[in-house]
Amino acid sequence: MLEQLKKINSKQFIGIMESLSDPIRINILELMMGGEICVCDIVKVTGLSQSKISYHIKILKDSGLISDRQEGRWVYYKLDLEVLSDIKNWMGNLIQSSSSKRSCE
Questions:
Q1: pLDDT, tens digit, 9 for 90 and up, residues 69-85
Q2: Residues in Cβ contact with 31 at an 8 Å cutoff, skipping those fewer than 6 apart
Q3: In whole angstroms, what is the distance from residue 25 CA to residue 31 CA?
Q4: pLDDT, position 2
Q5: Choosing a second label site near 76 at 20 to 30 A (CA), which of 8, 54, 59, 101?
Q6: Can you give 36-97 as a three-state secondary structure string?
Q7: In angstroms, rounded to a whole number, what is the distance separating the alpha carbons of residues 102 and 105?
Q8: CA distances from 99 to 4, 72, 95, 103 (A)
Q9: Positive or negative torsion for Cα 49, 54, 59, 65
């Protein structure tokens, strides 16, 4: 199944799944559903420290789930839609292949 991911290798896919295993990172991703966001805004919404948010942002960025851009002294983070689309396609293939019946003949 992992071979069906054209742009994500198995190591990256495992990293993505591991990065999704933390509620703080899930919360950060949900905040990014509204578009770009900076760490200071995430701190305001979550009440967590800047260093804790930065730690989780690094994990999300390293896994490929988010990307960033710098504008002056501010860094803005957003969801990487291409990676999310690849994951969605893989999940769709997993569901589709699971529904096919095979015989032991």
A1: 999 999 999 999 998 88
A2: 37, 41, 42, 45
A3: 10
A4: 45
A5: 8
A6: CEEHHHHHHHHCCCHHHHHHHHHHHHHHCCEEEEEECCEEEEEECHHHHHHHHHHHHHHHHH
A7: 9
A8: 17, 51, 6, 13
A9: positive
Q: Are 26 and 60 in contact (CB under 8 A)?
A: no
Are the CB atoms for 5 and 13 separated by under 8 Å? yes
Who's near 61: CB < 8 A, 6+ residues apart? 67, 68, 77
Give the separation between CA 9 and CA 20, rounded to whole angstroms: 17
Tell me the two tokens of residue 53: 């948010």
Alpha-carbon distance of 28 to 43, in angstroms, equals 10
For β-strands 37-38 and 74-79, DSSP reports them as antiparallel
Q: Are 83 and 64 in contact (CB under 8 A)?
A: yes
User: Would the pTM of this model clear 0.85, i.e. be above it?
Assistant: no
Return the residue matching tokens 């969605």: 88
Closest CA to 31 of 66, 69, 75, 4: 66
